[in-house]
Amino acid sequence: MRRQNNDELIPLDNSAIIYPPTVARYNSHIFRIAARLKVDVDPKRLLKAAEVTLKRYPNFAVSLHQGFYWYYFLPNRRPLEIYEDSNFPCGYIDRKKGANRYLFKVLYRERTIAVEFFHALTDGTGALSFLKTLLAQYFGLSRKEMEGDPHILYPQDPPSLEEGEDSFERFYKPRKALFASQTEAFHLGKRALYTDRVEAISARMSVEELKELSSFHQATITEFLVALLIEALQTIQEEQVDKERHYRPLRVQVPINVRRIFNSKTVRNFSLFTAVGIDPRLGHYEFEEILEQVKYQIRGGVNEKQLSLQISRNVVGRRIPVIRYAPNVLKKPFMKLLSDFYGDKLFSMTLSNIGNITLPEKLEGVVERLDFFLSPNKKNKVTSAAIGVNGYISLNFTSFLTHDTEFERRVLSALVERGVAVEVATNRRNEGE
Amino acid sequence: MAYCVKCGVKLEGGSQACPLCNTKVVAPPEIIGEEKYPLLVKEEGKIFHPLFDKTRKGIIELVLAFMVIAVITLIITAIAHKGTFSPWLAIISIIFGGLYLLIPLIVKVNYSKIATYYLILSGLLVIGINLLVEPEGWVAIVLLSLGLFWVLAVVPFYFPEGKRYLSLLLSIFSIALYLVLLDALHDNLLSWSLSIGLPTYGVVIVSLGFSAIRIKWGTPTLSDIIISIVLSSCWGVVAGDFFHLRSIHSERFLTWGFSPFIVALLLLIILILAVIFRRVRNFFTNRLT
Predict the structure, then answer these.
(1) What gap in Å lies between CA A397 and CA A403, rounded to an integer?
(2) A377 close to A336: Cβ distance less than 8 angstroms
């Protein structure tokens, strides 16, 4: 379908500009949010609901194009398709051939409805909003039944400008964007076999049990989970690296939804991250010490000043004339190479916790569980995401490692040892299967 | 639903092993159960995999971008100089330089493949330069040398492990052919290859053959091997002088090859004596080898 004359070019938001040029093998930048239902999915009904929902999210009805200076979106008028979920999560979406040029997919299978989004389009909160609205449409919720849920957008309401804004631009304050230089972090699976098939392990546990355990340590669930991840990373590094002087820092990237802090209603990307970690070159850290560090760093990093510094970093690239007017063919390779040095290399992994999600009463009765999966990348071959609903939290690990599940085992065993009942599911095939 | 006895986690119905530690589930089927609606798909359907990873793609794009910019700059410069500056040699060099950088990034890293591509590129580059700079002469000799290099340094890696001797025979034959063709290309006459080059080469090959047989089936020491190589070189020099004198119908047996001839004879005597003394010593010291 050709571009129409009145189509307006939609610039990517400031945090999204890094995603299209860095798409490659092992870097799909796709994430998935899935809802397991208590009833079978009707594909026809789902398609109808998806079409109605998409009208409410015009920012998602776009295709990606490469311009002379930057990538940009154009409205996509092709019919929306839904797909049977027949593959591993977070697979690559080809911007030209995949999903009818949409940058997201609606997937269904037996009792699962899932959405997979290219990160340039939105972040986890935006995708969750889309999924919840889709579910509300699918189950025919009335306006009254949807009211009070901050994520669900009523399809009959016109989309507001605020929903489609680039909040980074709005909250940008011209200040010096400091790029802290950091050393490369420890990465899992350096010598392990890997492919670009995403192997997932989903662990489901009671929010109550986890909350109790975290509260005992005077930490939030995210802080407690991050500390567990770092502890497992530390043990693995100690096993794999012979000499202490060759140890690398252990850093976990924790995305933060800053909509509440900056009071934004955008459905496009508006999350920042804080890097939390320890430096094992200073000695072995006990779990309590790790947790103290995590609490201190998360709480110290999540404040308006620190976050606005990150906003400045995100926005400043577009404002420097040399970068702004450099042709895209030059920007693309530099972004690929710099994203390694200023991104993937600096973190051992990511933990994205969307939090405990509340659903409208009618949905609560039909949604059994929610799952959130991030795509790993070549440096961070194992990554994790968490989401909670109906009193249960799903901690999902995604990995490129074909056999090595030592990290996941250590984290989940640590939870079991501390008295949390964990139920696991996977798409990994058993040895010899 | 079963639990993993090692990790303590509850497993999804139908699990035959723990996904975390791969411990087999040993339980009756009614405990293992069956998951009617598994959370994730185990089978792999069709999916598109991009060809290159991010870093590799970045370097490829960077090289291509710089190539394009450099070529455009040269063309603009040529236009600005109104024909007084020819950019073609520089453009060809940039394109080939870029291709040299790109080949290891694009093809699977494999010595024989990369070496072959490099040699083809080098051949094309030489042809290009020859056409632009000096449209006659030396290109055939360079191409011939590249071809010989390919046969000697790359072809052996294409032969399977058990048939490497075939590549040795091919190499011996190729060097002989190279000498003949080099002579033919130089002044279109077979002036020295048949009368001097090939016979000398033959002597060196025979001498090296003896050394090789001795190294493969004997028990030579390092000094034996070095002496054998020096000996072969001396025979080569002697043969060169000898056949040169024959080709000019000289009555002398050797001229400047006389000293190497003496050295070769002495080395031969040393080698023979070394073998004899070793055997004698072994005989008297009851050693089997």
Answers:
(1) 14
(2) no
For the domain A10-151, what is the CATH code? 3.30.559.10
Give percent above pLDDT 90 in chain A: 73
Q: What is the DSSP string of A367-415?
A: EEEEEEEE---SSS-EEEEEEEETTEEEEEEEEEESS--HHHHHHHHHH
**Hey, which residues 229-268 in chain B have their CB within 8 Å of chain A?**
none
Asked whether the beta carbons of A53 and A133 are under 8 A apart, the reply is yes
SS3 call for A248: coil
- Residue A14 to residue A120: CA distance in whole angstroms: 10
Give the pLDDT confidence of A87-137 residue by residue, as tens digits: 999 999 998 888 999 999 999 999 999 999 999 999 999 999 999 999 999
Structural domain count of chain B: 2
Identify whether the C-beta of residue A382 lies closer than 8 Å to the C-beta of residue A408. yes
Pick the CATH number of A194-426 from 3.65.10.10, 3.30.559.30, 3.40.50.150, 3.80.30.20: 3.30.559.30
Let me know: does A314 contact A269? Beta carbons within 8 Å: no
Query: Chain A within 8 Å of B38 (Cβ-Cβ)?
Result: yes
Give yes or no on whether A10-151 and A194-426 have one common fold. yes
Between CA A145 and CA A142 the distance in angstroms is 5
Is residue B263 domain-resident? yes
Give the pLDDT confidence of A181-190 residue by residue, as tens digits. 678 999 999 8
Residue-range definition of the domain harbouring residue B273: 192-283
Chain CA centroid to CA A276, Å: 17
Q: Out of A22, A110, A196, name the one closest to residue B37 (CB).
A: A110
Task: Tell me the per-residue pLDDT of A27-68, one tens digit each, with 9 for 90 and over.
Answer: 999 999 999 999 999 999 999 999 999 999 999 999 999 999
Facing A336 at nearest CB: one of B21, B50, B54: B54
B253 within a domain of the structure (yes/no): yes
Which amino acid is it at A118?
F
Taking an 8 Å cut-off on Cβ atoms, the answer to whether A416 and B8 are in contact is yes
CA distance A217 to chain B (A): 23
- CA A94, distance to chain mean position in Å, is 19
ipTM of predicted assembly, 2 dp: 0.87
**B151 within some domain:** no
Task: Please report the sign of the dihedral spanned by the C-alpha atoms of residue B48, residue B51, residue B53, residue B54.
Answer: negative
